[in-house]
Amino acid sequence: MQYRKLGSSGAVVSHLALGAMTFGDEADEETSRKLMSDYVAAGGNFIDTADVYSEGLSEEIVGRWLADHSADADKVILTTKARFPMGDGPNDLGLSRVHLHKALNASLKRLGVEFIDLYQMHAWDALTPIEETLRFLDDAVSAGKIGHYGFSNFLGWQLTKAVHVARAAGFCAPVTLQPQYNLLVRDIEFEIVPAALDAGIGLLPWSPLGGGWLSGKYRRDEPPSGATRLGEDPDRGMEAYGPRAAQERTWAIIDAVARVAERNGRPMAQVALAWLAERPAVTSVLIGARNQTQLADNLAAADLKLSPEDLDLLNTVSAPQHNVYPYGDQADQQRHRNIAGGR
């Protein structure tokens, strides 16, 4: 397991994080507890949950495990999130001070802790001024309820605005962003990755296996088997990655991952995880699991180092698609300058 700084903070986390979205749903409590124990035993120290996962049950399961494993709990960097509805009222969601006050206290209670290492805003809130959200988070740091804060699913301009508003107001700065990112979904490299690098923000990618597509679950002209977050129908699931015109790219990427996996004698999932863990700005990759075998297979990616040849193949076949403007070659030239000058 590698260890990296949590964004620009001084906190240190393992480069593979354990996502707890399955806890209380696809993984019952007994299985979830075993997953946490196995993960920590493998050297992992970063557990990610959210208030909305299984309507709070995920946090409760994590909290009970922490209470029963005090020695391991001291090693864990804990993160949870708030933003999505936890009730039917108009103030039961969002990033307002009113909702976040209730949400943070509720998460602390469910987790059975007095302090959350990283508190993330699960998505942008168009109704709440970002200044209100940032002031609450700064106050929460000062009150000793959270150590750091970050965001999830923000666009590039939203991240940049939050960073600069925080700096201008003298608030604590955000340290992380949790976006969807994998070999199939690389569009964030146009705006979000550069924004994160500019601000010293660490990326915590979710869905690193593309809902199972990069694990080898699906092959051309073969019926799907097993559950997937994108559904049993591969054509329906494929819609998450663009119209049918883009589906050939998806199959080409899957084929390339399979070739690299065969060349390294590793499962496809490990190849996809190893590729993502080494992308610019990535601090830790969120891995989820429904059982111990699945977790063990994913954790084995920790020691996989892809060759330049493997990386070149994967980078080429998965290159994000763009139009002529504003990300085409001619437009890209407008954002760079030859130090030697010339026409």
Task: Characterise the protein shown here.
It is a single chain. The protein is α/β, with parallel strands linked by helices and 343 residues long. It has a single domain, classed as TIM Barrel (Alpha-Beta Barrel). It has helices at 29-41, 57-68, 70-73, 97-111, 130-142, 156-169, 192-199, 234-238, 247-264, 268-277, 292-299, 308-317, 329-333, and strands at 3-5, 12-14, 16-19, 46-48, 77-82, 116-121, 146-152, 176-178, 202-203, 285-287. The strands form 2 sheets. It has an 8-stranded parallel sheet with strand order 9-8-7-6-5-4-3-10. Helix 4 (97-111) links the parallel strand 5 and strand 6. Helix 1 packs parallel to helix 11 (292-299). The longest helix is centred in the C-terminal third of the chain and has 18 residues, at 247-264. The protein is globular. Residues 227-235 have low confidence and may be disordered.
Strand order of the largest sheet: 9-8-7-6-5-4-3-10
Largest sheet: 8 strands, parallel
Query: By CATH's scheme, which homologous superfamily applies?
Result: NADP-dependent oxidoreductase domain
Helix content: 25-40%
The CATH class, by name, is Alpha Beta
The tally of beta strands, per DSSP, is 10
Number of domains: 1
Cα-to-Cα separation, first versus last residue: 49 Å
Whole-number mean pLDDT: 92
Strand content: 5-15%
* Spans of at least 5 consecutive residues with low confidence: 227-235
Number of helices: 13
What would CATH call the architecture? Alpha-Beta Barrel
Shape: globular
- The structural class is alpha/beta
Order of helices and strands: EEEHEHHEHEHEHEHEHHHEHHH
CA radius of gyration is 20 Å
